[in-house]
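Batch job 17 of 40 flagged for manual review because the log was empty.
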Amino acid sequence: MRLWRSVTLALGLLFAAGPAVLAQQDAAVPRSPVLVVDTEQLFGRSGLGAQIARQIEAEASALAAENRRIEAELAEEEKALTARRAEMPAAEFRELADRFDEKVTRIRNEQQQKARTFGADSDAARREFLVSAQPALEAIMREAGAAVVLDRRTTFLSVDSVDITEEAVRRIDAAAGLETPAEGDPEGGPATPGTPSAIPAPPFNAPVLPGTAEPPQPGPTPRPTQDNAPDGETGSATE
């Protein structure tokens, strides 16, 4: 409700100043008490945003590669453990299976914590970007004589002439010593607006029983046993 009142007040100021604003359509910075900016495009179309996005994507790729490597190692270890079951006393096999379960659980928890950290870092990267953008936005506000800058995505209606996204992108990159990439440039920003938080953390999938259509849902952790693991098949010590 408070946000709606703020937007309603801002729109009232905007349309009250409509003729003066429209007269400034060709200016880089319009004279208006209210400005709007698209924060998604601010990140997605700027060179600085593209630089941050590449760093986040590289971290996601590295974590995904680490997950795939660990998954393969655990699958091999599980296969080797199941293959030895016929040579071992039941009690000894169960002890090794329990240790394997504990190892898988520990590794799963570690990788899930890394995924949570990745998500937190992505959110922090967005906040840091907006902090870096603030001086440029404040300068534009002063030049425009504006009292407020609204996020265009939460604004019900506005005229294009008060949208300062393009000018803000140019100034943010200039302050960072970067060139603003052309829209859709594969070497620059993404073709469509994006945010660090939009990049998902890669999942960690522990080995599952061959032939299972879907990984088992979270619950008690199964393990290969001497009684029910057929010859030549891999039992599951994980979800």
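Reviewer: the log was empty due to a logging misconfiguration, but the result itself is present. Confidence is low (pLDDT under 50) at residues 1-26, 188-195, 208-239. Unflagging and moving on to job 18.
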